[in-house]
Amino acid sequence: MDPRTQGRTMTAIWWIRDDQRLHNNPTLDEALAWRKKTGGRLVAVWFPEQPREVVWTEFPHPIPKLSPDRAAFELACFKSLKKSLRAYHIEARVSTLNPIDFMETLQPEVVFYTHAAAIHERQQEEALQRLGIALQGFHARNLLKPQQVFSPDLPPTYTPFRKRIEALLGTEPFPGISTYSADASPSKSLFAHTEEGARAHLYSYVSAQGAGRQYKTRRNGMLKHSDSTKLSAYLSRGLIHPQEVWNRCLEIEAAVGGCEEVYWIRFELLWREYFQWVAFTAVSNLFRPQGLKAHSVSQPQKGSPKAFELWTEGRTGDALVDAAMRELRATGYQSNRARQNAASYWIHDLKQPWRIGAAYFESMLLDYDAASNWGNWAYIAGVGNDPRLFRKFNTQKQAEQYDPEETYRAYWSGQ
Length: 415
Known about the structure:
It is a single chain. By secondary structure, this protein is α/β, with parallel strands linked by helices. 47% of the residues lie in helices and 7% in strands. It has helices spanning 26-38, 68-85, 99-106, 119-129, 146-149, 158-169, 195-205, 215-218, 232-237, 242-255, 260-282, 305-312, 319-331, 336-349, 354-364, 370-381, 395-402, 407-413; strands spanning 11-16, 41-46, 53-54, 63-64, 91-94, 110-114, 134-138. The strands form 2 sheets. Strands 5-2-1-6-7 form a 5-stranded parallel sheet, covered by helices on one side. The chain has a two-stranded antiparallel sheet with strand order 3-4. Mean pLDDT is 94; it is low at 1-5.
């Protein structure tokens, strides 16, 4: 018998990360199976990102690691999960310690966790391994398993990755994924902070009569709630499994006899997946000034505090970019089209270091995901997985094409 277990109840930890759901969660399922088998105690623990300011070498002023709004949203998601876990008789805690110190002090028999993509998250996993505690990790936040991705390796650009994965998966749904059948209305707020709200939104948006039937056509809209899927925050917090999104799209595509509009949701979901594995393979390279490039790429050495002030406050004089940045400050969200224009303007028009813009978005976005955020910023900066070295958006033409009636710009002009 392990001397640590003598005289006390065996304890397992579910290390809550970006997998804050009860359904379609293999990490939680295995933890519950352990409890049933051993009769031990299962404790769920969440270690929130601690608000702090970070100074970047290119920029003299600190940028908060996460905004108060993002911190509040993440806390609300955890509180909803904590409430749901009562039905499973699972104690849920929040700890301000780092996971390593917490586990070293508690010395549980086993820790169940979901694998992460970004280097700083994976370093925590590696540090846990050195403690000698039994670990069980699961790839519960991605569509794919590593053996599916690295066969034989990860392509350097998206298109060959997409084609290979689409051929691999075909039109068969992922097995073992439960569906949502409750009669619930989607949240009227920008993002719900409950698993049920996330699933209700998915099954309403991607339905035979839902807005997802026009997703490809409307995805570049920036003002209406239904222009984009609004699944990003639910995926980033793990309120919903991407495999459930994939399966739901296949279900509706089959029900209506094929639908390119809905297929395009899966197309974009594969972009998210690609960036997860880019971050996984790139490790620290994704966060350096030259990004994924083997040699140093010409980048500004220092950022301008004045340019940063004008850009973040939406006072650059470019109406489309200013609208996007005011929206971000007010809501913690931008559409993908708005993000691309805001990032391009910061990098290529204001000629500022790309990492400063990426860090600001990390702070502000309610749907922040390390792999997607930093992967997309590196892509726009020409230091990521883009076959083109220069991807500058003409924001005037973008405004004419995607906001022809100036409704988006007008809406945010007075904010």
